[in-house]
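Hi L.,

You mentioned the student needs an example of a multi-chain input paired with its predicted structure. This one should do, with 1224 residues in total across all chains.
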Amino acid sequence: MNLQEVIDNNLAKTANGKVADYIPALGQVAPKQLGVALYNLDQNELEQAGDANVRFAIESISKVIVFLYAVKQLGLDEVTKHVGARQTGFPFNSILNLEIERAQHPLNPFINAGAIEVTSLIKPLADRQPFEQIIMFAREICHDPQITLNNEIFESEDRTGDTDRSLAYYLKANGIMQGDVTVSLTTYFKQCSMMVTAVSLANLGAVLANNGVKPWDQDRLISSRAATYAKSLMMTTGLYNESGTYSSIIGIPTKSGVGGGLMSAVPNRVGVGIFSPPLDQAGNSVAGLGALGDLSTDLKLDIFRY
Amino acid sequence: MNLQEVIDNNLAKTANGKVADYIPALGQVAPKQLGVALYNLDQNELEQAGDANVRFAIESISKVIVFLYAVKQLGLDEVTKHVGARQTGFPFNSILNLEIERAQHPLNPFINAGAIEVTSLIKPLADRQPFEQIIMFAREICHDPQITLNNEIFESEDRTGDTDRSLAYYLKANGIMQGDVTVSLTTYFKQCSMMVTAVSLANLGAVLANNGVKPWDQDRLISSRAATYAKSLMMTTGLYNESGTYSSIIGIPTKSGVGGGLMSAVPNRVGVGIFSPPLDQAGNSVAGLGALGDLSTDLKLDIFRY
Amino acid sequence: MNLQEVIDNNLAKTANGKVADYIPALGQVAPKQLGVALYNLDQNELEQAGDANVRFAIESISKVIVFLYAVKQLGLDEVTKHVGARQTGFPFNSILNLEIERAQHPLNPFINAGAIEVTSLIKPLADRQPFEQIIMFAREICHDPQITLNNEIFESEDRTGDTDRSLAYYLKANGIMQGDVTVSLTTYFKQCSMMVTAVSLANLGAVLANNGVKPWDQDRLISSRAATYAKSLMMTTGLYNESGTYSSIIGIPTKSGVGGGLMSAVPNRVGVGIFSPPLDQAGNSVAGLGALGDLSTDLKLDIFRY
Amino acid sequence: MNLQEVIDNNLAKTANGKVADYIPALGQVAPKQLGVALYNLDQNELEQAGDANVRFAIESISKVIVFLYAVKQLGLDEVTKHVGARQTGFPFNSILNLEIERAQHPLNPFINAGAIEVTSLIKPLADRQPFEQIIMFAREICHDPQITLNNEIFESEDRTGDTDRSLAYYLKANGIMQGDVTVSLTTYFKQCSMMVTAVSLANLGAVLANNGVKPWDQDRLISSRAATYAKSLMMTTGLYNESGTYSSIIGIPTKSGVGGGLMSAVPNRVGVGIFSPPLDQAGNSVAGLGALGDLSTDLKLDIFRY
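Structure written out for the whole complex:
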């Protein structure tokens, strides 16, 4: 099955999901789109098919990038003082899980509370605000200098982001967040509004798969330990509260975003980027997961089997 | 680092945990014990060191065996109608997670509620009660004909198992459990009271690592799909509510039991069995996890890296 | 408005509720019934209208009787060591509230967990089992020697009472319940299956309203302190998780049961018994609450106003 | 027992509590203070003893005033569309109760989420902002023209009020709050920072006890229905999550505040205001509740008995 066949086999599934519409700019995205990009480490080359060059909002996949950047800046030991690595059965935006656990820190960096906490850790440098640092790092790790901020999406996220504000003030009230709430949220909403493509995400996945070394120029960007840690988190908590479910049937470390993106990394094999906007109930791309499942079977990518 | 060095490097950590003492028969186990067994698929041989032949109660690791047996008897599709594969951040014996989720089935087969549900699915055969079927299967998959029921432990588990009774009646009350509560619980308490060794568990891990084929005689015992599914569950929910944490730092699909056992499976590489009674707060063997971490590093077993 | 007018004004509301049908014996009760009985302490006489002499299952209203009997036998100080007096916003059969609160005892004696705990406190006497003691006390406090156990209902309650079994084992597992679970539950299911009338309940209410002295013979049956305590509980937690709602619009200490009964006590004024089977979503009699609201307005019974 | 004896009997209990210190201005209050004021409707006169004229921050007792004012401005039917009257077993600042209940509105107006919601309903009038309206109403219902805003406390509340911000944004995110979050919170923090005395609170209690008519000038200020409703709420949810407990042993509708105030209303009998800063674990004045218990016994005020 080549990539075009994967597209053909799954495009119709876009009818089974619903494009995120909590902000107008996302709701207007054409639903019947599917793009797949695959970075193969063996041959060191990237294949693509379908809508793999269409730009879309990265949304929650930015949580991986910002986590990696925070670890690069502060070290894994420091970051993990502020956020755990525990799986959670609750929705990504749950406050309840914090209150029940009487947690001293958010359960993991891929739920909103944890991601906001990680963003708040990034310090301004002499000449660059946190978001500037983040977008520069995103361009590098995605091998995509054209990643830009979509201001319309950012402003919508900011305007409607009251659940995130509620989470952030909860963190602040409980002494978990040190940084300024408004500043941290602004950075967080901006990081969610970066525009990427399936190709960008395949590159990101390839760096993770390649244990932190960019395969296109053989330079190390992040530590092997950080890359390993991130792939584990993607497996145990990357697909919202259905992470365990997809782990057991697809078996590929993957992070999703409500913009319709999926980013996967199979250690030492491939990085995958997928784009298809309609989402299932848990917030994951329907046709995208179909495509990923096909790739897993066809290329023997399930890490619990191969 | 050979296995004896792993033992030497971690034995002192037994002082950092606490032997389970909710029943007398467990509380009397000598704490300063550590045994490691490693079944290497490449060389098709089993190494062992330390207390690898000491018998101990399998406890929660039986959840893997019974899940596999239920799948063998009923098929994965049928079993997954009754129990999910979702990660959960709650303790293994939480009722709360059922009530909050208003779940139609337990989140996964490795929390107590899910395990009891799976046990209740196993049907008596003409000549064999469920537990007889289970112990025969356990002997086969562990390559250990000497696995027997410890009656003292079974009776203690049965006598003190009120939390499990509470969970089982909750399942019954909500129409989730079809079988008889008392019969199912008796079977469940018996399965927890089977006596195994680190060697038995290494053999079990080796079957999973070998995708369902027993490496010692090359016969397929369970389907590759069931083996893959089980390894994924071990990764996302095998170490109680710290599963995500250990996934991110050790990276090996593992199931623990409060008897001090750990059973791991690295796909196509090795099966591991470990025994060391003192437990951490989450209920996992302290020195056992130390030993597993050393093996992961030394043999390059982290599946998110290698 | 005389009592017949109250009946006429509310009988049609029976169409707005649903008769409890979790057990067949309850589901077969004719829905279009409404009976009201009012024991007036001023004139020391009891009025009645409609179906005030129809027998029905007391269900949760027995929680008041058994609480009073336990206090009589053991003293209020002893009983309140085992069960609190806290309001709760959760459903009566919630386990979650126990687990969240990590409570050392059930929140109050009118949720199922608390009621089962109170029942478990009652000790067998030389010649009488707990239930025999309870039914004799019920006959006395209700001034109704014809209260008997409905065996069909008891057996149904026992057969379907898995949620209560789950709660009881939770209490046992957490060291809260001292007594035997099965014995306590049998007593509990029997107490719920006593057959009363609106007249019996008006008498019970009158003893509470009269601060523990039976108005029909002027003998003290329970302490004034116990009567006061019970009326407070009826106000803060007597109508399941809508207790506060009805407190604010009716203002009369009241306990309901899913058999369709309501029992109220207005201090020094009246006792009220009502019977009408169809229930609202929270489990309270719809037409019964309509009738009680009319009585409150008409006789100026709201204790927050008069 | 005259009021001075009540003071003498309870002053030493100030040693058993802890002055609120989440903001410096509260933490600096001298702990060994106890003031009691009693407005007797029969004799239409106010007695006082001890520190009854010391000014302190009204804190949560303002929730009663603002609820009454909102009802006066919008009607009870409109207000109760936005906030329930349900008791809750959770702490006053719990978010969890909102998420578990998947509530369409906060459970009641005396938990923080409900109080903030009520505050947000108050509309600016041509010439007066909500807080100006509130403080004018407070002066009138407390018969105390000297009630002023304590700016230091307001600023501290505002600076540290992140839990309230978290709650408010949760309400906003879920479409429950219509008003502006920041504006509503500013008003809310100001209302909590009004400075009252035990005498002011006894007057407020007297208006409630007198069913909405100010006893000092016989003018009706609020409807009888609103007064009744408020007294019920004070009983079922006025003393945080120990409301039921104190209802059962004191039996007087009461609202507390962490400034050390208690405000009680016994229908048609008395209004009570108490001030004593040290609080118990639930946030209620220790010596204040001691004094209120003495008054209840001595003056026969328990509404479930007399």
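You could point out the following to them. Chain A has a mean pLDDT of 94. The CA atoms of residues 86 and 107 of chain A lie 5 Å apart.

Best wishes,
N.
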